Amino acid sequence: MSTEREVELAQSGNNVPIEEIVVNEKAAMDVDLDKENQVTPDGGEPTLHEKTSLRHIAENLPISAWLVAVVELCERFTYYGMSGLFQNYVQRPLDGSQGRGALGMDHQGATGLTTFFQFWCYVTPIIGAIIADQYLGKYKTIVLFCIVYMVGLLILVCTSIPGALEHGSGLGGFIVSILIIGLGTGGIKSNVAPLIADQYKRKKMAVTTTKKGERVIIDPALTIQRIYMIFYGCINLGSLSLLATPYMELYVGFWSAYLLCLCMFMVGTLVVVLGRKYYVVRPPQGSIITDAFRALWIMIRNRNMDAPKPSWQAEHRGIQASMPWDDHFIDELKRALVACRVFAFYPIYWVVYGQFSGNFVTQAGQMEGHGIPNDLMQNFDPISIIVFIPLLETCVYPLMRRLRIPFRPITRISLGFIVAALAMMYAAIVQHLIYSAGPCYGQPLCAASEIDGTAYGNQVHIAIQTPAYVFIGVSEIFASVSGLEYAYTKAPPSMKSFVQSMYLLTNAFGSAIAEALTPAAFDPAIMWMFVGLACASFVCGLIFFMVFHHLNAKEDDMNALDADDDMPEAPIAESRRESRRESAPKI
Question: Entry's InterPro entries (predicted)?
């Protein structure tokens, strides 16, 4: 024993002989060492030593998770196959002088309406989350909003028929349909993403032995990551509808493309209804979101995050306030707010992301198409995602884990911002090449480019735009998938939908910023808008990493779920409601 330790014991007045204390401390150290070196049986929770020494793996998805993924695939098939045509539908005139169109509102009008549609689609998830958490639960809410979605699609199909367009029904029908469709997709989006993760029931790490005899750790966090990678892959498989709908638009009419989307959505709705017995369906947990907003207002008004707590009100206000929550609920809300703060930078990313379905489509129309519809180029975004997700999930990420190279969500999100900046910079270069080519140079689609009354793009091949879409796709894998994962894993059990809706709301903020940039969406200013977005995304990526990189070290602790997570959700909800009734002070 060291001299310092002997002095410490002597000063403490301990009368036990030093030799005996030495023996006891050594025995205790040996016991701790034995615990660390013990072999945990398969299915048991790993020790700290095993967590750091054994390889972590993800588990296979249950069948119910795959069914939810199919539902999302059908919904995204509809959404992208339909909305990917909106730029041409709104921008170009019905007479076909600039290719097939309908409403003839020019570039800025089309960009404004399509951007509003994106904004609306990401505000409405809050409505869906409130209905799900407070009244119906996720499953019934999804079914309800599927019906709403189909009504909007039916209006869009009917008002895009040539006869309806000729009689002036196009614009009114379009506006009504996007409002209803936006409500439908928002109600679905806020609940599908948490629902697919709800299908996975394991909450704690467990040791297992592979067929090759290797002892590994099943890590729920990695499984959730895999779930959202597959979920996002299905989203982009669905978005390949843009391989078909532009040709249907070109050779048949917009109504035929919208009708295909309606039929595919009906298939997804049938999967929801017929697969009911396979889903893990959790009941609503009460007025979680409305209570959360009420508590947030009290926090803001009092400038104190503990102000909504009944105990704080009793201590600082001297009143016995009757509130629909207890102190534990406010602690969970604070945890949710900490999780949400990483989303503050996302609006800039969504501005960049939104370019591929708006201004990129217009840019493609300013080049020589060689028989390729300008809105067909959008497919290179989902194709790149479909190629890179399996590559990352089966090769890159497992190799990094074997080499003990951490690639935490904060790092992935930062990288996503930087890759998105590369996409914008490349788009600016392509725009410069368009302006440098004839016959119209800085004014694409001018009269000099018309042949038989149809305007053609400048002498730049449309395929040169491909890398911009690939960059956007790769950035989504890092930024968007990691955002979905972060919104689920960092949210307290009672606030999954709330945090998910807050994450989706950042997309609405991004659309609002993009709406403000609409006046810059004209030639030749749009090239400099691309440059500005590239710089903004790159700088945001760097600042984001500097501000939040410390959360990487806390990742495992933040992923640790509450002790009551292993209980069925209904008893949890009931026990919390009972707890609130008992702990809420009475007036």
Answer: MFS_trans_sf (IPR036259), POT_fam (IPR000109)
